[in-house]
Amino acid sequence: MQNKTVGAADFSVRYGKKLIMSEIIIENNILRFIVDPEKGASIMAFFVNKENSWLSLMPDSRTESTDLNAACFIMIPYSNRIENGKFNFEGRDYQLRNRENHSIHGDTRNRAWRTEEADSSRVCFFFESKEHKDINWPWSFDARVEYFLNQNTFTSQIALKNRSNSVMPAGCGWHPYYNRTLLFDEEPVYLKMNTHGVYPDANDNRIPSGPPQIPSIEQDFSKEKLLDISLFLDSCYHSYDGNGYIFWPKSGIKVTYKCSSCTHLIVFNPSKPFFAVEPVTNANNGVNLFPKKEFDSGIVPLAPNESLTVSFSLKMDFL
Predict the structure, then answer these.
(1) What is the number of alpha carbons within 13 Å of residue 55 lying toward its C-beta?
(2) Residue 83: helix, strand or coil by DSSP?
């Protein structure tokens, strides 16, 4: 199988009104994704080839038809929210910026990454927080993300290293969006994800209001179930086992998840043409939940020069 890489200098094209100057394309005869190192090493679009037709599995964020800034972005050095951007770790108080939005999704997704390696089937990017004077995190860190294709499987790996002289609370994850319909208008999409609890959200702010509890009927995807566009969800699941799938039966496409070290999962189901299923290491507000053992927050305390490494793969099957 022939894979193809197009370097950033080789690809510049106008999509609607958006001019993309730094794209890198990785593709084979089944999968194609487009990544931009200048925009957080985010995936801008992701396509699947079925019967010689390229289908947009994820929203193409380069087009004017979507309000998304990326099809899939990575969250480092923590995932999701920190309540009011404030936390205490090892006896010291910290205040982050963007507190009005609960300091959401880390601080690397809107920054430029350095392209480290690229070949016929993979690309790697590197990030050093010390190169950014305004980094919104008290500790210095390095991060490396790799994307690669192997036949019908896409894989990404994140490595996050503490470059400070003290212990750093760490977390990370992926935020992939998916198109609700692929080949047919208003086609159904089904979800099955193996989790054992969900955090309550009594204040409707995506900040856990208590320890994990048994999911409601609407939140329970332990068995394959329709992901109904009329049911709004933005739920953080606990004890995710790293497996599961998304299934578009009318289009005959099934996407199987395989994750390592991602003990939490976010399912975001707005009344829009897309939804998100996000494998992450830590709970929402994880650094504040870390001292409370009944929460099992997923935050990893990294000693100086210690690393957290996680992986996420998507296998495409055509049914």
Answers:
(1) 20
(2) helix
Kindly report the pTM of this predicted structure: 0.93
Nearest C-alpha neighbor of 158 from the set 267, 312, 313, 300: 312
Report in angstroms the alpha-carbon separations of 16 from 43, 45, 55, 60, 207.
Answer: 18, 14, 18, 11, 37
pLDDT in tens, 188-218: 999 999 998 999 999 999 999 999 999 999 9
Contact 263, 297 (CB under 8 A): no
CA separation for the pair 84, 233 (Å, rounded):
22
For residues 288 and 88, give the distance between their C-alpha atoms in angstroms, rounded to a whole number: 7
Q: Which residues pair with 163 in a beta bridge?
A: none
How many Cα atoms occupy the beta-carbon half-sphere of 69 within 13 Å? 11
| Rg of the chain, C-alpha, whole Å | 19
The highest-level CATH class for domain 4-318 is: mainly beta
- Rounded distance, CA 80 to CA 278, Å? 10
Q: Report CA dihedral (183, 186, 190, 191) to the nearest 10 degrees.
A: 100
154 touches 138 (CB < 8 A): no
